[in-house]
Amino acid sequence: MKLPNHPKTSRGYTVIELMIVVTVTAILLAVAVPNFRTTLKNNRLTTSANSLASALQLARTEAITRKTEVSVCGCDTSQDPPICSAGEYEKGWAVFVTNDDQHDVCEGEVIRIWGALPKDLEIHAPGLTGILYNPSGQTDLDSGDTRFILNSEGCTLESAREVRISKTGRVSTLRVECGS
Fold first, then answer.
1. E strands, the chain, where?
2. Which residues lie below 8 Å from residue 84, measured CB to CB, with a gap of 6+?
């Protein structure tokens, strides 16, 4: 008895099939990589805004708990001890128990220090040297709400973050348009 003639089944892929897979993969990566970079940048921005908000909330809580003035200031945290000056929040920030006798916002016992922002992020706090919380948890700010704006290089649409502090000391974070 003779078996029917069947063609041999191949095991493997042809060069054409492999080229199609490589081409489809390249197209998918070309679309996905830029979106992934944007996602990473937005995550760094949100993390930095939340870190600043947590510093402000810590200062308010410590002021109420310790029944004394506590402040948040921009500092060069690469120095030991950190050197704090008006509006240099890109290099980091610190929470201080303010010296009672001097009322210098950026000097006193350091409660906690936050490091510098990632290089591709910026923070704007026009005319703001530091935030001082009194023992009741309110700020020393004269105006209504004070805000920090954090954005990244090449900021587009609503990818900036705003950290807002009310006169009562309440902190909130918002997603805002670039340049607002």
1. 70-76, 83-84, 93-98, 108-114, 121-124, 130-133, 146-152, 160-165, 171-176
2. 73, 74, 75, 76, 94, 96, 106, 107, 130
Q: Is 178 exposed, middle or buried (0-12, 13-18, 19+ CB in 10 A)?
A: middle
CATH T-level assignment (fold) for domain 15-176: minor pseudopilin epsh fold (3.55.40)
Give the bridge partners for 172, in sequence order: 164
* pLDDT tens digits for range 21-69: 999 999 988 887 777 877 888 888 889 999 999 999 999 999 999 999 8
Distances, alpha carbon 133 to alpha carbons 39, 136, 142, 143, in Å: 34, 8, 13, 14
Tell me the domain boundaries of the chain: 15-176
Q: From CA 130, how far away is CA 18, in angstroms rounded?
A: 61
pTM of the model: 0.77
Counting residues of the chain whose pLDDT is more than 70, the rounded percentage is: 84
Distance CA 82, CA 170 (A): 26
User: Measuring CA to CA, how many Å separate 53 from each of 6, 15, 63?
Assistant: 73, 56, 15
| Strand (E) or helix (H) holding 1 | none
